[in-house]
Amino acid sequence: MKPVVSLLALPASTLAGSVLWSGIFNSSATVAEFDDWSWSNQIEPWQWYIHGSDKTSEYLGLSSSYKNPAASDAQGLRTTIDGTSYWEGQTMERTELIPQTTSDLGSGHLYYHFSLSTSSTNPPNATYEHQIAFFESRFTELQYGTASGSSGSDNTLRWNAGGTTHWSVQLEAGNWYNFAYDIDFTNQKVGLWASNGSEALTEVVSPVSASASSNSADWHVGVLRLAGSGTNDDNAEDWFWSGVYVEEDSLTKEIGDGSSSSSSSSSSSSSSSSAEATSTSTSTAAMDMATTTAAVETTTSAAETTTSAEATPTQVVAVQSSSSSTSTSTSTTAVTTPTAAPVIATPTAAVATPSAAAASSVASLPVPTTPAQILDDVKALLAALLARGGGVHARDFAV
């Protein structure tokens, strides 16, 4: 199996401690790769040998639909036990993965993270005892169902330490239960942190004494089922896993790394930027329209008090300003609603309907209505100004 230690799913910026080992699956991991592991080919991150006689895909599954939606995993893990899940002739039904690593997972103060869920499809049988996420010595583990050798049905999910139940909850299909075993191998204590769904972990059991030990290859991520009434169940039951990793030093309480929310933030930021650009464009366009209107109004005023020769460039300036402002607006946003012709037409129409006084003062001047006519007027204007002999100055275009 190819290494699928996906520390990209757990960036250092979001972690409180350091990851010693990660069993989180990236998007390229496939079920077939579990079979690449063997005793002669011990590749990380998982050992896969405790299972029944059927093909691996009957016992394991990988899918984005198997993960805690709040977690950063690309895919979650499904473990299935059924009437074929007998390992090495045992009477227990087992489907279990074990970390494959060179890291020391049995010393110091560590946190074993995982999230667990079930479904109303292939639900667990509450009349059977289940040992879940357990160590070989069983100094800590989860248990579900009726104790082996007893009768009845018990829908309780329990956390045990030192053989004693310290925390329990009624198992609810579809709910994601997040856990972190708080294991102090040095001081021989173990506690439990837990939460639901996307909620951050909280301490639900303070550390209690336990004979904590691990050889780094004896944490069973999966399920061992014992017959509660002496007979096993052939029906399949599914357990789903997400966010499986081991951390040292400090505890990361958040579920996942927030990469989804980062993506959402990026999307939101992008949308915000787009909105800002649109707003800027709208404001710019509004300001430009106001400028154009003001220019047109000034043109009208100028037309009332100046000669017709001076009124012509003023009109041209107003049209050019509108064209320029439209270009600025378009560069600010991807919205390209107006075109050159309507932009020119708008101020032209405004100039074409001046006050009565203005109309009488500029009646001899035809109002340009096409780009070609405007260009001709500009050329004529420049020629007239250059003919003055004094050069062209900004004052010649004052409005």
Automatic annotation (TrEMBL):
InterPro entries per the UniProt record, alphabetical: GH131_N
Ranges annotated as biased composition (Low complexity): 259-336
Keyword terms, alphabetized: Signal
Pfam families assigned: GH131_N
Signal peptide (residue range): 1-16
Region (Disordered): 253-336
Residue stretches making up the Glycoside hydrolase 131 catalytic N-terminal domain: 19-250
PANTHER family linked to this entry: GH131_N DOMAIN-CONTAINING PROTEIN, GLYCOSIDE HYDROLASE 131 CATALYTIC N-TERMINAL DOMAIN-CONTAINING PROTEIN
Protein name: Glycoside hydrolase 131 catalytic N-terminal domain-containing protein
Upper taxonomic lineage: Eukaryota, Fungi, Dikarya, Ascomycota, Pezizomycotina
